[in-house]
Amino acid sequence: MKNLLSFIIRNSHWLVAIALIVISFYLVFSHNSYQRSVFLTSANNVTGWFFETSRKATEFVHLSKNNRLLLERNARLEEELYVLKSHLLGAQADTITTHAFLNDSVQDTQFSFIPAEVSNVSFSGPNNFITVNKGSEHGVKADMGVVSQNGVIGVVLSVSRNFSVIIPIINPKFRLSGKLKNSNNTGSISWDGKDLNTAQIGELPKHEVFQPGDTVVTSFSRIFPKDIVVGYITEQIPSKDDNFNTLNMRIATDFYSLTGVLIIGDKHYEEQRRLEETANSY
Hints:
The chain is of the alpha+beta class. It has two domains: about 1-60, no CATH class; about 105-280, Beta Barrel (Thrombin, subunit H), CATH 2.40.10.340. It has six helices and twelve strands. The protein has helices at about 1-10, 10-30, 35-60, 65-90, 95-105, 270-280, and strands at about 110-120, 130, 145, 150-160, 165-170, 175-180, 185-190, 200-205, 215-220, 230-235, 245-250, 260-265. A six-stranded antiparallel barrel has the order 1-2-5-4-3-12. A six-stranded antiparallel barrel has the order 6-7-8-11-10-9.
């Protein structure tokens, strides 16, 4: 108590000055409408700035969680979309078939989608790869296809308990069967190692009709459903074989901004692989 009184006595002139300033401000703002209006406006601006900054900080903290939830939602929507496409292609438009479809479960579909977040990328050379935060613990296996919300990304190369490494389209080792969306002629998709936004589709017949902007989609593949977007035709380039066309295409996936992926699980993959291996043994 003695120390407190001593402090007040030593600084009494400052305390009196502060008290007088507070009283002066009170008298000015309480008895003058203009000054009170200016004060309230300034106070509202400061309060508004504080709450806006607080809101943005909160949104940033929850950004990772929100991205994960959106990715999981995209995975469920992809499964439902695939079921719908399969039904529309294989069913007749009658009441019995429609009711049967409505009673079907999404769990019966051939393909499932595992959402994963990108942990690391390497785009510094030709042997590019992507690491994601899902592995064998989550059902991921080697040779599974990987897509983004825009199109094909690549194929799972190797898997650990909690991580997977993906070979993307922009890797010379990547190969995929593809075709133009409105064509039945199949070609081979690859990357020449030059531009991270551009891949090539080759081995297309000379009579293949195409236009810049045509969509390239997946064709026969053990790891991708049919008609998944791969890219968009930009131009024709010289081909190594005069009997075929080779086209440049802009890759649908933007690898520079990639944060989340969907890994495709095919419940018929092992059955098909074993059957084809027996055919190759003859």
